[in-house]
Amino acid sequence: MNTKKDEELLQMLSADLERLDAQYDDISPPALPGLERLIAEEALRRQQQSRRELQRFLLVALFMVSIVMISLGFAPVTYWILQAAVPIAALGCLAVVRLRLRREDAEE
Amino acid sequence: MSDGTHERIIRAQQGDASALAVLLQEHYVFLYKYLVKATMDPLLAEELAQDTMVRCMEKIGTYNGASSFSSWLITIATRLYIDRKRRWKLEMKWKRQEEGVRSIRWRFESRNLEWSEVLDALSRLSSVQRMAVLLKHYYGYGYEEIADILQIPSGTAKSRVAAGLNQLRKELSEDEHKEG
User: Fold this and answer.
1) Are the C-beta atoms of B121 and B175 separated by less than 8 Å?
2) Which residues of A sit within 8 Å Cβ distance of B?
3) Percent share of chain B, pLDDT over 90
4) Which residues of B touch A21 (CB under 8 A)?
5) CATH class for the region spanning B1-113
6) pLDDT digits (tens, 9 = 90+) for A1-45
7) Do residue A70 and residue A34 come from a single domain?
8) Nearest-CA distance from B138 to chain A in Å?
9) Which of A40, B24, B107, B161 is the most buried (most CB within 10 A)?
């Protein structure tokens, strides 16, 4: 790699980028009152959004709890079977994985 | 970082809107100039500067001082730019890029300044290479920092800088041949 040419290129690049920067020296930053208003509006928007999200979460949670309560009221046997089936299935999977690992260790 | 900036950051994190406003105002020009060079599109730079300020308002509480405040802003702005580019379609991207470069060129010409071949070549680089070259050779960040800003491995940051410089060199020598 030609280091001298690289250095020249980097110097040219920096000089031109500085020239480019200088073209935008006259831009003015937004006025403070405008920024303060934007910050206040943004804070309000975020507050409203988080309130909406909480409401949505509570509605979904309420819906799910009511389904559980209804199924418990109308079909308690099915409900308890389902409640038991999930942990039993999880324990079964765990046992199978453990057995496999033990068998692999024994083969080695 | 100056004591004044540090103090304003702390006050802004405690919910002081005026301190946050001053902080954003102080860094606006720096941020905008970075975005002009990164995007080569002054209009897009303005939009992204505004989006960055809004994101900064949301995230000011998470700023931990590990890097300077301006580096933190550059990181946010760069990620917003990358996200926006992902959403653009290819055709739109080229059209927008052309318009952006024309706008910068016009600014030079309207002030009777010569438009530079290096800047022209820089504007033709892919944005990922341009940002890597800019962060390394203009802002002086290390490869690890660039990797963090661009959310890529540091090896990729290094190869993007090298590829960008190679491409610049190639474009400039092609221009020389054309002129010769």
Assistant:
1) yes
2) 5-6, 9-10, 12-14, 16-17, 19-21, 23-24, 27, 29-30, 32, 35-36, 38-40, 42-43, 46
3) 62
4) 33, 37
5) mainly alpha
6) 467 888 888 999 999 999 999 999 888 899 999 999 999 999 999
7) yes
8) 6
9) B24
Partner residue opposite A46 with nearest CB, options B36, B58, B168: B58
Please, are residues A32 and B14 in contact by the beta-carbon 8 Å criterion?
no
Contact across the interface for A20 and B111, Cβ inside 8 Å: no
DSSP H helical ranges for chain A: 3-23, 32-74, 76-107
Judged by CB atoms closer than 8 Å, whether chains meet at B25 and A12 is answered as: no
Confidence band for B90, pLDDT divided at 50, 70 and 90: low
CB contacts, 8 Å: B161 with chain A: none
CB atoms inside a 10 Å sphere around CB A30: 15
pLDDT, tens digit, for every residue of A74-90? 888 888 888 899 899 99
A36's CB contacts (< 8 A; 6+ apart) are B17, B18, B21
Contact A40 B42 (CB under 8 A): no
Question: Quick one: A84 and A66 in the same domain?
Answer: no
Compute the mean pLDDT over every residue in chain A, rounded to the nearest whole number.
Answer: 89
Q: Is residue A96 part of a domain?
A: yes
Cross-chain Cβ contact B137/A14 below 8 Å:
yes
Task: In whole angstroms, give the CA distance from residue B158 to residue B40.
Answer: 22
CATH of B125-179, one of 3.40.109.10, 1.20.5.170, 2.40.128.110, 1.10.10.10: 1.10.10.10
The complex's ipTM works out to 0.77
Same topology, domains B1-113 and B125-179? Answer is no
What integer best gives the mean pLDDT of chain B? 89
Find the mean pLDDT for residues B115-141: 91
Question: A16, B118: Cβ pair inside 8 Å?
Answer: yes
Q: Are B37 and B12 in contact (CB under 8 A)?
A: no
pTM, two decimal places: 0.73
**Full residue range of the structural domain in which residue A63 is found:** 28-74
Q: How many other C-beta atoms can be found within 10 angstroms of the C-beta atom of residue B74?
A: 26
